[in-house]
Design brief:
Layout: E1 2-3, E2 8-12, H1 32-37, E3 41-50, E4 59-69, E5 73-75, E6 81-83, H2 94-107, E7 111-118, E8 121-129, H3 145-154, E9 159-162, E10 174-177, E11 180-187, E12 192-198, H4 208-212
Antiparallel strand pairs: 1-3, 2-3, 3-4, 4-7, 5-6, 7-8, 8-12, 9-10, 10-11, 11-12
Length: 224
């Protein structure tokens, strides 16, 4: 099977002047309306999947994806609307790079929050804390196993590390947080972490920095 031409790309602009009151580090499911009310930007597209039988034009599956992000939109070189570019500046001028990195640091607090819905069902959530700053009281310090367990203990959320796949006792990266498996890649020395919860299959991780924040929207058909 393969991805075929994307039929539609839609962007709904929502003013991000609204105060975000959601605790995104809880794993409970959240609605699209909640995100809209809290000032998230919405990016949407429809993807189709071909059955590849080369006999007719049968479409195996159609899926609508709605991505909500705290990152504002910009127009890329192809004239398409996408989230502000925050990675892969190899072919960009230094002025744009500095402007966008300043936006990441000063307006986003070095934190990118992304939710993806497929056919109106929450698919996954990723929070990317590029550089933790303890001055930002809305962002917890999850840069070590001890800090992760302490944070959820203090807010009475049952949490335990799981030792499976690449998650080990020396470096546990998979946690069961309030009955949802969540992957947290972290570094206490580099002061960063990435937090990912998949609500459909409870495990798969996607590196969405490449898909969404490198100056374009990678309009792919996701498998569970």
């Amino acid at each position: 099977m393969k991805n075929i031409v994307i039929l539609l790309v839609v962007l709904t602009l929502i003013t991000c002047q609204k105060k975000d009151t959601i605790n995104h580090f809880l794993t409970k499911q959240i609605t699209q309306q909640d995100l809209i009310k809290n000032g998230f930007y919405k990016y949407s597209y429809i993807a189709t999947l071909d059955d590849e039988d080369k006999v007719d034009d049968t479409i195996k599956s159609i899926a609508r994806y709605d991505m909500y992000s705290n990152v504002k939109p910009e127009i890329n070189k192809e004239g398409k609307v996408c989230p502000t570019q925050l990675w892969n500046f190899d072919y960009e001028d230094s002025i744009k790079k500095k402007k966008n990195i300043d936006y990441l640091k000063k307006e986003l607090g070095n934190t990118i929050i992304t939710y993806l819905f497929r056919n109106d069902s929450l698919f996954y959530k990723e929070i990317n804390v590029i550089s933790f700053n303890n001055q930002n009281k809305n962002i917890p310090d999850l840069t070590s196993k001890e800090k992760i367990l302490k944070y959820y203990h203090n807010i009475n959320i049952p949490t335990k590390p799981l030792y499976e796949q690449n998650s080990t006792k020396n470096y546990p990266t998979i946690y069961k947080i309030d009955n949802y498996k969540t992957i947290i890649y972290y570094s206490d020395t580099d002061n960063y972490y990435r937090f990912f919860t998949n609500y459909l299959n409870n495990s798969t991780y996607y590196d969405i920095r490449e898909y969404w924040y490198s100056g374009s929207i990678y309009e792919m058909y996701y498998f569970d």
